[in-house]
Design goal:
Two copies of one chain form a homodimer. Chain A is mainly alpha-helical. In chain A, strands 1-2 form a two-stranded antiparallel sheet. Chain A is globular. The two termini of chain A are about 25 Å apart. At the A-B interface, helix 1, strand 2, helix 6, helix 7 and strand 3 of A face helix 1, strand 2, helix 6, helix 7 and strand 3 of B.
Chain lengths: ~170, ~170
């Protein structure tokens, strides 16, 4: 009954990134229908000292690419955080999805007990690969996924839990 | 390099439940300082058609206890959803934490390829154990964790990302 770090990470990021990409499309349709400039939604925040939608999307993609690259033992590609439009954010998501496909699953699987060192504010964090995935990368990934979703919900975008969950391998009986 | 379903679930729920328990304490302190009745915070919502804080806490605990019980192959204990006070919600979290300690880790680990059937609205959902954990239980757990956190943030409670992450095994160097 194997369960591996690559199984626990790559498909989760893939489904999540595709889900948030579709949520952004629904947000754009909502903005167009209501004659709201999309830049207003991209700058929306849940609280004045929380990040706006644009930054949430940047961090979601960072968690996916940086987390899985570090597990695979390679340096993550650096994305400049210069996106200002919906199309640029969607391109960033697409680039992240393409990068995930290049990773060596065996290298990720072999990292569960290896110490991973990663930037953490002005310091560095260190955790085993398994702990890094389950206690750092996934909570952060979902934190920003949910916050992005909640932002759009609070703006009136017509999305529900299924949009958040995305294309999961669920059989309904 | 083993990575198991019990490792990927039980400590994640434990850290998350303790984190949200501490967030609720900070919310209560905030309410007391601002002379806001705690029932106002417990009824707060991000959007009119999203669940209030009380329900978010109920679902967080449900995902943890139901998810892990089903992976262990046993019927989850049923909690009546009757909490109306902070103390009752904290007791629900404590009961969930105590229940998690009773589960058979070997049974959870053995369930990665076993079909799990679970209630899903008016239907039932079916997924393998590994898929159920990573594509259903964890996304739902974190969705409601983050929404509860975001609700408290939007009410002005003085919490940050560290409060959300909780007591993770992180070494700072």
């Amino acid at each position: 009954m194997p369960y591996t770090l690559s199984q626990a990470s790559l498909p989760v990021f893939e489904i999540g990134l595709n889900a948030i990409n579709a949520v952004l499309d629904k947000a754009a349709a909502h903005a167009a229908a209501k004659k709201i400039d999309m830049s207003v939604l991209l700058a929306w925040r849940l609280a004045p000292d929380m990040f706006p939608l644009t930054r949430q999307i940047q961090i979601i993609t960072d968690q996916a690419k940086n987390g899985s690259a570090r597990l695979a033992g390679i340096d993550p590609p650096k994305f400049e955080d210069t996106e200002t439009t919906l199309d640029q954010l969607k391109e960033r998501i697409a680039k992240t999805l393409a990068f995930l496909k290049t990773l060596d699953k065996g290298a990720i699987d072999a990292s569960s007990e290896r110490e991973i060192t990663f930037p953490l504010g002005a310091h560095k964090g260190q955790m085993t690969g398994a702990d890094y995935l389950k206690h750092f990368v996934l909570p952060n990934f979902y934190f920003h996924m949910t916050t992005a979703y909640g932002l759009m919900r609070s703006c009136g975008v017509d999305i529900g839990k299924r949009d958040f969950m995305g294309g999961i391998p669920l059989k309904t009986i």
